[in-house]
């Protein structure tokens, strides 16, 4: 079983997480033998969190409750509040995850936070475009490892810029191996193009052709 920890912080960009967490939590397109998923929201306190879209979320658990293991995954969303020192603890956890080979997914502002700790200096990664990380992280030294794409996967680190949420979700799902390969390709083709032939191809990859919501 995989445990997916979704870090939530005030002003987090809720839409950036949407594709990934909806598919991982619902399991609607999982293959028959997919590992089970437990998805938990986590934060620095149990106080309600207000997203950028105005959603209120009460975290399921605290940072100290996170189990760091190879079957744990940490997802970090973009937000306007990453500079607050109270988020240093989750960034330390991210470093622990990366060190043992556990998966970390970071998007937009969370990538900047990782860069600020030097965690991207020797790892392939992406962000909101060449030069973006230098604007906010004067000590950033990962230019030689920068990949100019919406999302980039390198072993257990999956990073994305603000426009890369769909590809980011695809790469997270692929890393976990919970979709059949043809299901994942059809899913990505449908949601990236909106063409009906990809929807029907997606349905044909599932055990039942009953269309999910």
Automatic annotation (TrEMBL):
It holds the Pfam family DJ-1_PfpI. Keywords: Membrane, Transmembrane, Transmembrane helix. CDD domains: GATase1_PfpI_3. InterPro entries: Class_I_gatase-like, DJ-1/PfpI. The chain crosses the membrane at residues 97-120. The keyword Transmembrane helix applies. This is DJ-1/PfpI family protein. The lineage of its organism: Bacteria, Bacillati, Bacillota, Clostridia, Lachnospirales.
């Amino acid at each position: 079983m995989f445990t997916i920890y979704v870090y939530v912080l005030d002003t987090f960009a809720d839409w950036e997480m949407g594709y990934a967490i909806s598919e991982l939590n619902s399991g609607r397109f999982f293959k028959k033998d997919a590992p089970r998923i437990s998805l938990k929201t986590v934060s620095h306190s149990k106080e309600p969190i207000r997203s950028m879209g105005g959603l209120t979320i009460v975290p399921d658990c605290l940072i100290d409750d996170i189990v760091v293991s190879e079957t744990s995954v940490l997802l970090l969303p973009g937000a306007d509040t990453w500079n607050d020192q109270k988020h240093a603890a989750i960034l330390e956890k991210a470093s622990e995850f990366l060190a043992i080979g556990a998966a970390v997914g970071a998007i937009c502002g969370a990538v900047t936070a990782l860069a600020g700790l030097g965690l991207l200096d020797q790892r392939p990664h992406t962000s909101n475009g060449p030069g973006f990380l230098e604007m906010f992280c004067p000590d950033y030294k990962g230019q030689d490892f920068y990949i100019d794409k919406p999302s980039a996967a390198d072993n257990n680190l999956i990073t994305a810029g603000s426009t890369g949420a769909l590809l980011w979700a695809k790469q997270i799902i692929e890393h976990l191996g919970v979709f059949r390969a043809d299901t994942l390709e059809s899913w990505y083709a449908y949601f990236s193009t909106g063409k009906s032939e990809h929807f029907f191809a997606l349905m044909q990859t599932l055990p039942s052709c009953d269309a999910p919501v």
